[in-house]
Amino acid sequence: MPRVARGLVDGFTYHVLNRGNAKQIVFHKDKDYAAFVSLMKEASVRLPISIYAYCLMPNHFHLVVMPQKGEHLSIWMQWLMTSHVRRYHGHYGTSGHIWQGRFKSFIVKQDEHLLNVLRYVEANPVRADVVKSAKDWQWSSHRMRIEGTQSALLSTLPIELPHDWGRLVDESLAIADLEKLRKSVRRRTPYGDLFWQTEICKKLGLESTTRSRGRPRKKVACPFYGT
To answer: What is the pLDDT of residues 9-49, one digit of tens each?
Structure first.
């Protein structure tokens, strides 16, 4: 199957994710999570990118970011992934692939669709039944956002959050919103209203991400642990 074009362009917000190779566990202990967060900070010093949200889970991660130049996202992610793999092998004395390959990403419209993506990312530990409330998961942007202790890692959001953000994140997204978002995860379809999505796909040559593929897809769990 041919690869989907990334469609990395300037001034857009992206949902970025990757998972462990063969769904393997990547973050085994707190120091593994902390090391990855530290690498994100260093990557942002090397090449400034706005980080709006993140969530690290045992076998995958989610980021919501905005590079000023689209091409910077690939450079930033390549340094982050390469540095993490080097650190992992050095620490555990292993070799081979850690991540499944190149990261996935898709464009997000900066309106209520961005709010849905932020909820989706920060609620990951709740959907995985790891914690009862997202604020109890240490390795995401949610706790520091709720506690008002946002570190230098997070940038100011381009959209205002509802005042009851903590409650909204702990509540499930509407089924229709969740299915549409998961389609973007699977297909890298730009996530927004239909008119905007159609225009973006035409502009960036991403029409293939909206087309059906062969037989109707069976209902299966999203391939990311806890998504």
So the answer is: 888 999 999 999 999 999 999 999 999 999 999 999 999 89
Name the residue range of residue 81's domain.
13-210
Bridge partner list, 14: 65, 107
Q: How many domains does the chain have?
A: 1
pLDDT confidence of residue 101: 85
> What pTM did the predictor assign?
0.89
Concatenated DSSP letters of 101-127? SSPEEEEE-TTHHHHHHHHHHHTHHHH
User: Would 163 be classed as within a structural domain?
Assistant: yes
Q: In this predicted model, what pLDDT tens digit does every residue of 82-108 receive, in sequence order?
A: 999 999 999 999 999 999 988 999 999
Q: Give SS3 for 150.
A: coil
d(CA 199, CA 209): 13
Quickly list DSSP for 186-225. Answer: HH---BS-HHHHHHHHHHHT-GGGGS--SSPPP----SST
Helix/strand/coil for 61? strand
